[in-house]
# Entry
Amino acid sequence: MNRKLLVFALPLGMVGTMVGCGAPASPAPPSLNLPTPVVNLSAGRIGDSVHMAWTMPTRTTDHLPLRHPVTTRICRAVDGDACTNVGTLSLAPGAAGTYTDVLPSDLSHKPDRLLRYEVALQNHAGKSAGPSNPAYSAAGTSPATVTGLTGQVRQDGVLLSWKPVPDPGRSILFRIERLQLTVPAPQEARSSPLAPSEPSSTQTLAVHGRDGEDPGHAIDSSALFNQRYRYVVKRVASFDFSGRSVEIQGLPSEAVEVTTTDVFPPGVPQGLVAVADAAAGAIDLSWTPDSDGDLAAYRVYRRDVQGGLPAQRVASVGVETSFRDTAVQPEHTYAYSVSAVDQSGNPSKRSPEVEETLPRP
# Structure
């Protein structure tokens, strides 16, 4: 039998294409599925517990989405010691992570020491891409809970008082949390003598002690009149460990509610002057403006000196500081006084009287 060799002629470009199709591609490296580390760990101690919070990542270090819950380990280090595990959680990607570390007795009492916390996320093989950012707190005795809290309304604000407990050798401040239970009308917020502008419904005020001393009181001068507030006070001890500032919050006090009813009259008007205008048959009055922020009106009182009768109110002039009295008679002497009235209707005492005689034209 004759064997013939068959040769097919192909274009050069086509030959190159066929050779390229047969070449194997480079294999992609396998993903380790390592979750990216946590970057926003925070820690705060209240009483004998340290409360931590962070946000779980949603991707791996290879930028692939995480599809399953992630093993999360929380560790604690004292001073410069190694970080030892205190808790393990399984959290979904993107979840808000929280953990409370209840301190053992050797860390919830003196001496005061620095605590460092870290969070490490592990893949299915127990591998981690590294710890989170460190978050710091403090070991030591928690400040005493504020007891005996009371609130008293004064003209310059709300006076809060409590039972003082000194804490020598520590820097102590008192954190006052105020919740406004009623919402003031805009005009009340602007005109209140206790605050020139409307505060937010929730505020935190701080009062610093001195060398561990406890003042036992504080004044909330930003409160508004005719409102209702709830107050809670905490003692807070602050520390500085080699330039790193941390704090321990004591447990909050029992809440006290205060209604700031305005029963305080404005100041007595000053500088009252009376000048007769014979041609017009009138007596002109003027006085110094009152500085109270909730002023509503002035009341003008007049007494006929010759008549022997008590003074009578002859006018209410709003917030103006002048008044022309035309209901007067020539050759009569009149004694004038002025009082101020606030928006709650509280009148001040009358100013000292001034006398003026209207001559004949």
